[in-house]
Amino acid sequence: MKPKRIYLPIIIATALALGLIMGSFLNFPAPQRGLISGSSHKSKLNKLIDFIESEYVDEVDTDSIVDLTVNSILEKLDPHSVYISKTEMGEVEQSMKGDFVGIGVNFYMYKDSVAVIKPVPGGPSDRAGIKPGDRILYAGNYKLFGRKLPNDTLFSKLKGAEGSQLTLTVFRKSTNKQFKVNVTRDVVPLKSVDAAVMADKAMGYIKINRFAETTADEFRIALESLKKAGATSIIIDLRDNGGGYLEKAVEIADEFLRDGQLIVKTRNKKNREDKTFATAEGIFEEGKVYVLINENSASASEILAGAIQDNDRGVIVGRRSFGKGLVQREMKLGDGSAVRLTVARYYTPSGRSIQRSYANGGEAYFNDFEKRFESGELYAADSIKIADTLKFKTVKGRTVYGGGGIIPDVFVPLDGHHGDEAVLMVMQSGIVSYFVFEQLDSERKLFEGKTAAQIQNQVTSTDKYYKAFDAYLAKNGLVFRLGRHRDKVKRYLAAEFARQLVSDKAYYEMILKEDNMIKSVLSPKPQKGK
């Protein structure tokens, strides 16, 4: 494969798109309704589909025509009113539900084999004795190796009813043996809280990747554990969190705000305004709070950040958030598909709408990140465009601005120099996980029994893994100049080794030590004017 240079906007656009898909899931339950009523305009579509099915000269998949029609209609509305086909619905619902029934393994296709990166701790496969590095050859009698199976086929073979048994045929490379093991399928959590660790002796850190059904409960458990560990201040990391359920962001805000403080307002087409207030049941109403945001923090993330900022409850750190102030409701269409339709706008406690304009269409709307990059906003607070006509006041009288996202109280630029961000994004991507797995696959015994600190020393004290990773990227068509990032690359590699060999906690404890936003909280510097 010929190596090719990958440019930053392409990589970031991909990451941003994924985040915004999550952001469009901010919804409330809705009663099930039919899509088409009896009006003449609406029945016209039904008649056309009937004519095509009965009279058109060639065979046509009318389902696909309807899908195109629905998407065309929604494109005329706003960028966050979206259609979810019945084939996509299962995956979407699973992601937001917070768990699924399966065998509980983190895997990927390596040389046409299902390679286990790591079983979910305490999950069905872990209990059955599956180990990192194992290859799953058969699920029952279904052959999984030597075939280029799509992920949906793999998932369908490994998932099943809760309590059902699946016989796996496994090859264990470390012993060069093949054996069968029975795994009882069970509920496997999909974590929305990635980490809860101590950043220093008094500062707790919680990373939220989305706002799903279980997020508030996960967060509460994490917060309680950090309080017991001695945390008197908390960092909430919402970077790259594209959103989710509004009510879960509200529940988390309630943990920090006093009884009666306004969290969020929503206003619908009929100008009905609903206000949500904090209760007296918050478990961290004292102590400092810091919220980390960036250009990919959207919707529910912005609701939480806005509530903390407008009530002067904490400090917002990072870069201007995405700017999504619309609320969607999910409406089933009767065939397994659904529409997430924008039904309201939300406003922060000071009255701000942080929704940025989509008057120039969806493409321009979603390409806003590139404009921020080119304008220099991601590197200098002075480059942030502030709407002087949209001034609002916090509870204590500080000026905040509406339109186009939450502007942080403390600005932290993108890491490194112009053009260096792509390296950081690669180091936080799945390709690092695959590289580390492949390294362990050939030398796992070198790391057996070692602590996280020993693993870190083994990886960072030599250029061996750094050079191997550079070659791995080139082999996969990704060419980067890693030279001036040597120490950072080593640190991320060591952290990933620790994650696969020890725990997610070990990963974050290594990464956070050199995180610029974390540093700005732990060792704050005077801020220049915005």
UniProtKB/TrEMBL annotation:
SMART domains: PDZ, TSPc. Keywords: Hydrolase, Membrane, Protease, Serine protease, Transmembrane, Transmembrane helix. Pfam families: PDZ_2 (PF13180), Peptidase_S41 (PF03572). Residues 81-137 form the PDZ domain. GO terms for biological process: proteolysis; signal transduction. This is Peptidase S41. It comes from Flavobacterium cyanobacteriorum. GO terms for molecular function: endopeptidase activity; serine-type peptidase activity. CDD domains: cpPDZ_CPP-like, Peptidase_S41_CPP.
